[in-house]
Every structure is written in structure tokens, then in C-alpha cells.
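Need D-malate degradation protein R's 3D structure for a figure. Predict it.
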Amino acid sequence: MDQIQAMRIFARVVEAGTFTRAADSLQMPKASVTKNVQALEERLRVKLLNRTTRRVTVTADGAAYYDRAVRLLADFDDLEASVSQARTTPRGRLRVDVGTTVARLLIIPHLSEFQSRYPEIQIDLGVSDRTVDLISDNVDCVIRGGELADQSLVARRIGNLEFITVAAPEYLQRHGVPRHPRDLESGHRNVIYFSPVSARRYPLEFHKDGEVIEIASPAHLGINEGNAYISAILAGQGIGQLSRFQIHKYLENGQLQRVLEDWKHPLLPIYVVYPPNSHLSAKVRAFVDWVVELFSRNPLLQGESRPA
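Structure prediction for D-malate degradation protein R:
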């Protein structure tokens, strides 16, 4: 038995919660994962995991072993990196998860720049507006907008999004231009965003001179994906709120028109987030530093306005 490999497999099973998910993330047969964990238990002469038909849970001995194993594996990786000079030449497979709009407008158009700089890093790019679980889904880092609920994760703020209220000119010709947020409660069609995970509906939000107004209903249309939301507003479905970064070209070419300009929306913070494993690998560090640089180059990702 390769003890280091068995320790890695055991740690992955603990983090994933099932042998099947661990096997998928490791790209190994489930039988091999099971065999390695059993061999590790036989070597240690203790039971590390309690198995059920749906899930595995960690025994007291298994929890203690996991904590030490994770630290040892991090130290081992650090040792190998320093010997192989991986810090100057990061390498390996990197799994990143980003939202659909950020992927389409920013990451993918500039990805060749990162690949040229770090040719030995292979990227698995997950693109979804659903929030992934970094630990159980075995994701190295994610880019997320909004305040973070999980305080155990390490987060680095990389930007801010300015949201503005817009509609297509043809929509405004049919329904008129609103003069006050309360106008949206009658006579207008509102398009809102709802979470693809929790189905939480996010109201249109307006701030001015200490007054806060939220328009949650009536909502003519709710959408849970960023690119589809943009398409709906462009198609004249109604009035919505989008980041200037997403739609600046549509403002410039006249496909969208800003309304209620005196009313503001709070800036939305953007973070690059990774698990708190006390060890940031060279490949993750390289990606995080590149993303920070990429965001800093674009004023629209720092909450800095441009004329519409």
C-alpha cells in the first residue's frame, strides 16, 4: 500500500462524504478508493469511517487521524514544491468555478494570457451561477459576488460591481419612462433575479439620501442565470438591474437605456475564495494573483463609473 496515496484518498472521502463522490473527484474506480481506505484501517488497526448505504461519517479516531493527515499532506506537498521548483513553475490540474457572466466576459477571453504565463497548469473551468461546495466538490477556488456566508473560507476581495437600472428603448416607448421607483409597482414590467440554489428572489433595490426602496412585486419575470437575465432585458421584457460591467457595450450602442439615474444600488463585492487548508499551492496562488491583476485592470470591475 502507498501510504501517502491512501492518506490522500481517505481525506478526500471525509471531505466528499461518500466513496462515490470521492472516487469521481479523484478520477479513480470506487473499488480502488474503498480498497485503499480498508488497507489504511488494517494498517492502523482502527476504524476510521462508519459506512451507511448513503453516506460515510468519521469516527473519533478517524477525525483525529484526518486532522493530522491533512497537515502532513500539506507539508509534504510544500516539500515537493520546494524541491521541484514548482513555486517558480507552477504545475498540475487546477479546478476553478466561476459565474456564467464573469466566465463569458472576462475569464475565457483572457484565459490564453494565463495559459501562456503558466503552461504547465491544466484548468478545469466550472461555469455556473450555482454556488459550489469547495470541499465536497473538490474545487480549488471560486470567484463569487456578494457577502460570504461561510466564514471558514479564505476570501480575497478583488473588485466591486456597480449596478444600474435599465430597460430596452422599445420597452420604454411602450410603457413610458419611470420617474420614481414606486412607479414600478404599477404600469411596468419588472425582471428580477432569483437564486438557482435557494430560489430566493432578489428585489430591485434603490437608495437615495438615506431612503431605501425595494420593489419585489409585481415581477413580470424571474430569471436565475446572468446571461439569460441580460437577454430578457434586451428583448424588452421589462426593467431590471444589471452591473455596468455586464452591459456597458449595450449602453454605448443604445440597445439599453438607463432609468432612475438619481437612485443608486449598493456596490456588490467580488471575491476569489479558496479553502482554508493552511497551504495555498503554487498553482492556486498563481491563479489568484492573475485574477487580482485581471480585475484591477478594468475600472468597471472596481465600481468606477463611466458615462452611459
